From TrEMBL:
Domain of life, per lineage: Bacteria
Similarity field: Belongs to the glucosamine/galactosamine-6-phosphate isomerase family. NagB subfamily.
Gene: nagB
Catalytic activities: alpha-D-glucosamine 6-phosphate + H2O = beta-D-fructose 6-phosphate + NH4(+)
Positions annotated as active site in the UniProt record: 67, 136, 138, 143
Keywords, ordered alphabetically: Allosteric enzyme, Carbohydrate metabolism, Hydrolase
Modulation of this protein's activity: Allosterically activated by N-acetylglucosamine 6-phosphate (GlcNAc6P).
Role, per record: Catalyzes the reversible isomerization-deamination of glucosamine 6-phosphate (GlcN6P) to form fructose 6-phosphate (Fru6P) and ammonium ion.
Protein name listed in UniProt: Glucosamine-6-phosphate deaminase
GO cellular component, one term: cytoplasm
CDD domains: GlcN6P_deaminase (cd01399)
């Protein structure tokens, strides 16, 4: 994996937004996979800024969802569809029709998972998938010991993940117990994977994913198998990387035209 260490979250957001802008110049209708939570917000703000300044054209971009809660009513403000519309689609001025995601309100959730797999395939696949990482090393909602070949499916959240997400709800007990998530195998089919991690709380997970063995107990370690995976971390999240100095030197020596 390519590892890029940046000073802070704002710098990371700007770097990734620039990579997305480069992709959109090459492929204006690129399919961008987005993540939710607080970590990727600097990316979306920076990309909206580039679009607002006329430095990139996002008008034909398409957006797809990584995961979705099961059982939240349509329009619930913390459903991931609502979050993506609010934080990505609307600030970029995109039509809602440009957005695709799994249906967490479906009566037949198994079929909803299969339908989303078909939707992604029919769309030509994801060009760039933005990822976060959980403190336990999960990506999407592929919790530890998820199959590295898994496809989009329903998953039960661990109590740690529910606690991590409780800050977005009025009460901890309001956090759903189940989600639809792209599987690790599905995620690995994206042409470029970009994982952003910030803060000391993510340092152990980042080190295990980047420098540890490939292991289902650390789902993010599956990125080691991808031909084009980039990990962007701030200094705090990089604090447990044994090869941090090597990663800094490698990126500093990289020709600017190569991009991320």
């Amino acid at each position: 994996m390519e590892v890029v260490i940046v000073p802070d979250a704002t710098a990371g957001g700007g770097l990734i937004a620039g990579a997305i802008a480069d992709l959109l110049r090459r492929k204006p209708d690129a399919l961008l996979g987005v993540a939710t939570g607080s970590t990727p917000l600097p990316v979306y703000r920076a990309l909206a800024g580039l679009a607002g300044e006329g430095r990139t054209d996002v008008s034909r971009a398409r957006i797809c969802q990584l995961d979705e809660y099961v059982g939240l009513p349509a329009g619930h403000p913390e459903s991931y569809r609502s979050v993506v519309l609010r934080e990505v689609v609307e600030p970029l001025g995109l039509a809602e029709e440009s957005f695709m995601g799994p249906d967490g309100t479906a009566e037949d959730i198994v079929e909803a998972c299969a339908a989303y797999e078909r939707t992604l395939a029919e769309a030509g696949g994801v060009d760039l998938q933005l990822l976060g990482i959980g403190t336990d090393g999960h990506i999407g909602f592929n919790e530890p010991c998820s199959s590295l070949a898994s496809r989009t499916r329903i998953k039960t959240l661990t109590e740690q993940t529910r606690k991590d997400n409780a800050r977005f709800f009025d009460r901890p007990e309001d956090v759903p117990h189940h989600v639809i998530t792209q599987g690790i195998g599905t995620i690995l089919e994206a042409r470029h994977l970009v994982l952003l991690a910030t803060g000391e709380a993510k340092a152990e997970a980042v080190a295990l994913a980047v420098e540890g063995p490939l292991a289902a107990v650390v789902p993010a370690s599956a990125l080691q198998m991808h031909p084009h995976a980039t990990v962007v971390v701030d200094e705090a999240a990089a604090s447990k990387l044994k090869l941090a100095d090597y990663f800094r030197a490698t990126y500093a020596a990289k020709p600017a035209w190569q991009g991320l």
